[in-house]
Design a protein that fits this description.
Elements: H1 2-23, H2 29-49, H3 55-78, H4 84-103
Helix pairs in contact: 1-2, 1-3, 3-4
Length: 104
């Protein structure tokens, strides 16, 4: 269950990271509120996950999910470049996340 909570926390991290773009510098109320809610939910879920998972592993996996998800959403939604180098680095992050999960 802790890994599932951690995965959800990572998804909410993607939500608030992408949400920052849509807040337009916190001048748009609805995206700002949704972004703030995503931030809070993400941290709460991380806090619940670290009750049973090692903090270093959980934090690294949380940020890794957030990083990979945000980069992919940036490519898909915002037209960020999808260069070979960026995709290779995403693969390396995923390999690191898998390695941490396998050794936790």
């Amino acid at each position: 269950m802790a890994w599932f909570l951690l995965f959800l926390a990572g998804l909410f991290e993607c939500g608030w990271a992408i949400g920052l773009k849509y807040t337009d510098g916190f001048t748009r109320p609805v995206p700002t509120v949704l972004t703030a809610i995503s931030m809070v939910v993400s941290v709460i879920l991380l806090g619940l996950a670290v009750k049973t998972l090692p903090i270093g592993t959980a934090y690294a996996v949380w940020t890794g999910i957030g990083t990979v998800g945000t980069v992919l959403l940036g490519i898909w939604l915002l037209g960020d470049p999808a260069t070979a180098g960026r995709l290779l680095c995403i693969g390396l992050i995923i390999a690191g996340i898998a390695g941490l999960k396998l050794t936790a």
